[in-house]
Specification:
By secondary structure, the protein is an alpha/beta fold. 38% of the residues lie in helices and 25% in strands. The chain has 9 helices and 10 strands. The strands form 2 sheets. The protein has a 6-stranded mixed beta sheet with strand order 6-7-8-3-9-10, sandwiched between helices. A hairpin with a 2-residue loop joins strand 4 and strand 5. Helix 3 runs parallel beside helix 5. The protein is globular, with a radius of gyration of 18 Å. Bound molecules: adenosine-5'-diphosphate and magnesium ion (MG). Adenosine-5'-diphosphate binds next to helix 1. It comes from Kosakonia oryziphila. It is a peripheral membrane protein. GO terms for molecular function: ABC-type amino acid transporter activity; ATP binding; ATP hydrolysis activity. It is found in: Cell inner membrane.
Length: 246
């Protein structure tokens, strides 16, 4: 289980996340929706500690970290938490000079200290899972966007993180290419992968999510099932936002 309690994040005094409280059950998918600039990416980055909140508490499974404005967070505490997470970015962010397989094995070998053979087996297993084993020796620039994103998902999953964080994983893709990425994400959801995903794609959000969270101006306006938010929003702002996208 993942919990965020009273998370606050500011940039130069500008409060970007305001008193965020959120619980994510293991094996469920949470989607974050909201206007550009509402804080979706910052929220994801505060879970893998690419950004450090000023205050609040984050728990991922057995790992807990408390943020206070005056205390510096130690590198080892950041690593302890960030290793529980895998991240998929809008623009894939593959290492351009490495093959699909090497993109996956690199972190296993250098960060997680796996031996090469074990990393190769894990890399091939994951490439197979995302339907990309036939491209194991291909460089990213020879792959379509959808193929690159599938490799990026495999890379993020390689060390078996407790949670997969996805920041607009289909936004850079044409509809046809986004379909193949959605299919992979849906399969992962069915298998019980814990995921938190920011998306503009309401259909994806509705299809895949156990919980949908609507953020606006750094606040959680409303959260609930896809049915609750998309059909029976309690807050007018939620309904307006959903109407503006559909
Ligand atoms: P979203 O992903 O919902 O579009 P973001 O989390 O990217 O929103 O941004 C939320 C707000 O935080 C925006 O106003 C953005 O300009 C600001 N912001 C995000 N990252 C930084 C940063 N590194 N420095 C300063 N402001 C930032
Ligand atoms: Mg964003």
């Amino acid at each position: 289980m993942i919990t965020l309690s009273r998370i606050e994040k500011s940039f130069d005094g500008n409060r970007v996340l305001k008193n965020i409280n959120l619980t994510i059950e293991e094996g469920t998918v949470t989607t974050l929706i909201g206007p550009s600039g509402s804080g979706k990416s910052t929220l994801l980055r505060c879970i893998n500690l690419l950004e450090i909140p000023q205050s609040g508490e984050l728990t991922i499974g057995k790992e807990r970290i408390t943020f206070t404005p005056d205390a510096r967070i130690k590198g080892q505490d950041i690593r302890r938490i960030s290793r529980q997470t895998g991240m998929v970015f809008q623009n894939f962010a593959l290492f351009p000079h490495m093959t699909a397989l090497d993109n996956i094995t690199e972190g296993l070998i250098t960060v997680h200290k796996w031996d090469r053979e074990r990393a190769r087996r894990r890399g091939e297993e994951l490439l197979n899972k995302v339907g990309m084993l036939h491209k194991r020796d291909a460089l990213p620039n020879t792959l379509s966007g959808g193929q690159q994103q599938r490799v990026a998902i495999a890379r993020a999953l390689a060390p078996s993180p407790a949670v997969l964080l996805c920041d607009e994983p289909t936004s850079a893709l044409d509809p046809e290419l986004s379909g193949e990425v959605v299919a992979v994400l849906r399969q992962l959801a069915l298998e019980g992968t814990t995921m938190i995903m920011a998306t503009h794609d309401l259909r994806l959000a509705a299809n895949i999510a156990s919980q949908v969270v609507f953020l606006e101006a750094g606040e959680i306006v409303e959260s609930g099932s896809a049915n609750d938010l998309f059909l029976h929003a309690k807050k007018p702002r939620t309904a307006e936002f959903i109407a503006s996208l559909s």
